[in-house]
Amino acid sequence: MRHVIIIGAGPAGYTAAIYLARAGLSPLMFEGDQPGGQLTTTTDVENFPGFPEGVTGPDLMEAMRKQALRFGTEIVSARVDSVDFLERPFTVKSGDRTEKCSTVIIATGATAKRLGLESERRLYGRGVSACATCDGFFFRGKDVAVVGGGDTAMEEAVFLTRFANSVTVIHRRDALRASKAMEAKAKANPKIRFRWNATVDEVLGVETGKVTGIRLKDTKTGELSEMKLDGVFAAIGHEPNTALFRGQLTLDHQGYVVTHQHTETSVTGVFACGDVQDARYRQAVTAAGTGCMAALDAQRYLAEQGS
Predict the structure, then answer these.
(1) Please, are residues 175 and 145 in contact by the beta-carbon 8 Å criterion?
(2) Contact, 66 vs 75, CB < 8 A?
(3) Which of 101, 134, 230, 275 is the catalytic position?
(4) Can you tell me the distance from the alpha carbon of 133 to that of 47, in angstroms, rounded to the nearest whole number?
(5) Which three-class secondary structure string do you get for 129-153?
(6) Active-site residue among 101, 135, 201, 273?
(7) pTM of the predicted model, to two decimals?
(8) Annotated catalytic residue, options 44, 59, 131, 218
């Protein structure tokens, strides 16, 4: 019988583990398919406090992992196959392993939707990004593209104009899905231009190891054309990693775990932190903050239960 099980790893999960382990609760963590989460796909992280010279995403996550281990977290490099939050104690299954616990912290994160190109995968972190707030600084004076037509794409495009020389919004149709207010803001910005009825057919620069441009396909004529660029930002949404919890917890219309009163979910004793419940900020530092909150909430719950 475990006090607490953490499902998922990353800034949120590791921070929760550090706090719980230091409290003597010996948490068990299932890291899942991507130990360290989304940050393991990034290169330089320059906006995480405490690293004045910056740090790579993988190095930051490895440091957090070592800290969690140091205080006594048991980490299993495996994914959770099923959970049962409908009966107490809660049940968490991974392969042939079945664990029972009093509390669960969900930190499975979200996955940025990709364009689905092999060249995009190979150049991710080398000019391809899904987070303007994270990586915009690296494109000062550069020419970049934002792929998408919703509010997120417009927000990313406007943000990037603080650094980039030019921002081209690429949209598969001839009208945006964004709100009128966001559309007006983007169109009023002199650094932003639009390429309508186009999709990204290929990200160029694999042979050089960095983005040099993109090949576009006209959605009406099929005609191909190339555009020289230094960066490509995919802004076509995020997918919260919550399939495991459907039917167990309340999810919103986008699939994010609904939390109230800080990190509590719809099931008492189950808490959620990080990008799995945050569709707005999606930053490493905010994920770590909610990981701390979830750990403290779990501690209070256990104390109230006399555990």
Answers:
(1) no
(2) no
(3) 134
(4) 9
(5) ECCHHHHHHHHCCCEEEEECCCHHH
(6) 135
(7) 0.79
(8) 131
Report the pLDDT value the prediction gives residue 43, as an integer from 0 to 100.
64
C-alpha closest to that of 46 among 36, 66, 60, 35: 60
Q: Name the band, by pLDDT with cuts 50, 70 and 90, for residue 282.
A: confident
Going from the C-alpha of 65 to that of each of 15, 27, 55, 88, the distances in angstroms are 9, 13, 15, 29
- 44 classed as catalytic: no
Give me the pLDDT at residue 266, please: 97
pLDDT tens, position by position, 175-218: 998 889 999 999 999 999 999 999 999 999 999 999 999 999 99
Residue 273 bears catalytic tag:
no
How far does CA 265 lie from the centroid of its chain? 19
Q: How far apart are CA 92 and CA 74, in angstroms?
A: 15
Residue 106, pLDDT score: 98
- Quote the CA–CA distance of 295 and 228 in Å, as a whole number: 47
180-187 vs 151-160: helix axis angle to the nearest 10? Answer: 30
Residue 20 host element (H or E): helix 11-22
Asked which of 143-147, 228-232, 280-284 is least confident by mean pLDDT, the reply is 280-284
